[in-house]
Amino acid sequence: QRRLDAEWRDVAPKTRDGRAIEIAANIGSPAELDKAIASGAMGVGLFRTEFLFMERRSLPTEDEQYAAYAKVAAAFGDRPVVIRTLDVGGDKPLPGIAAPHEENPFLGWRGIRMCLDLPAVFKPQLRALLRAAVHGNIQVMFPMIAVVEELREARAMMEACRVELEAEGVPCKMPAIGVMVETPAAAFTADLLAAEVDFFSIGTNDLTQYTMAADRMNPHPRLARLCRADNTAVLRAVKMIADAAHARGIWVGVCGEAAGDPALIPELVKAGVTELSMSPSRVARAKRIVSELDLSQA
Ligand code: PEP
Ligand code: MG
């Protein structure tokens, strides 16, 4: 693995027919930042911020979050660092927030739904992101978007935070804004969403579970066949989302498990995806696979 990493570390891969593909890393803890850098990742395609909120008694402060986001942004310089806002739900309670009992937490109060309802949780994160954006190429994405109004509301909250920070004389910058496309509703309205964002990142883990109506947490082999991103329905959704992105001239990536899957990388690139974000251990292999692809032969 180390040798493979070293061999590909500085390569910005292109397919044989000349399409440049960004290979980025997913990170979900401070330790993974070092792994991402060592892997030769060309940026961070998904920074899961949940670790800052879990396994503690109180919510992280704005300053704590600012320090964590600024550190990752600075480590990648002008390379993109895509930070996802808090994505917890009924199954993962937040300290100090009474989680309602839900029969189906994955269809419940989670992700952006919860954040929009809890400004006391969401606003410190948005302020921290606006402040950290000064230190690098931060791009912010909202998870679990199902209707365009959620995006508008989140953006308005972010804009209000920016005005606040400026009034306080705190250095800040509005980052690029994107959405995770991981609900069938977002896939079906990708044209409407694309008109209002700077990028899409397709969350194939949830998009697969919701498209196939097959629980991603259910380990039974009876379901495993359905809960796979290589099902035609999921690949068609990816194509539809990529087409909608291209029609508006915005970039589209994949940050679910499929992005690092050797069998799926060719399919995703063929569909028009130009960024793949994965666990650091898969970065070098993905670069090699992309370099061997020839779409003119496909
Ligand atoms: C996804 O849903 O594909 C994704 C990347 O997010 P998570 O696995 O954190 O839900
Ligand atoms: Mg998800």
With strands numbered from the N-terminus, the spatial order across the biggest sheet is 1-2-3-4-5-6-7-8
Structural category is alpha/beta
* Sequence of secondary-structure elements: HEHEHEHHEHEHHEHHHEHEH
Number of helices: 13
Helix fraction bin: 40-55%
Q: Taking Cα atoms only, what radius of gyration do you get, to the nearest Å?
A: 19 Å
Name the poorly predicted regions. Answer: none
Q: Terminal Cα separation, in Å?
A: 29 Å
Number of strands: 8
Most strands sheet: 8 strands, parallel, barrel
Mean pLDDT: 95
Shape: globular
**Bound ions, cofactors and other small molecules, one mention each:** phosphoenolpyruvate, magnesium ion
Proportion of residues in β-strands = 5-15%
Protein name: Phosphoenolpyruvate-protein phosphotransferase
Subcellular location: Cytoplasm
Binding site for phosphoenolpyruvate: 48, 84, 205-206, 216
Family: Belongs to the PEP-utilizing enzyme family.
Summarize the structure.
By secondary structure, this protein is of the alpha/beta class. The chain has helices at residues 2-8, 30-39, 62-75, 111-117, 119-132, 148-168, 184-188, 190-194, 204-212, 221-224, 232-248, 265-271, 283-292, and strands spanning 22-27, 44-48, 80-84, 137-142, 176-181, 199-202, 251-254, 275-278.
Index terms:
298 residues; alpha/beta; 8-stranded parallel beta barrel; 44% helix; globular; binds phosphoenolpyruvate; binds magnesium ion; Phosphoenolpyruvate-protein phosphotransferase
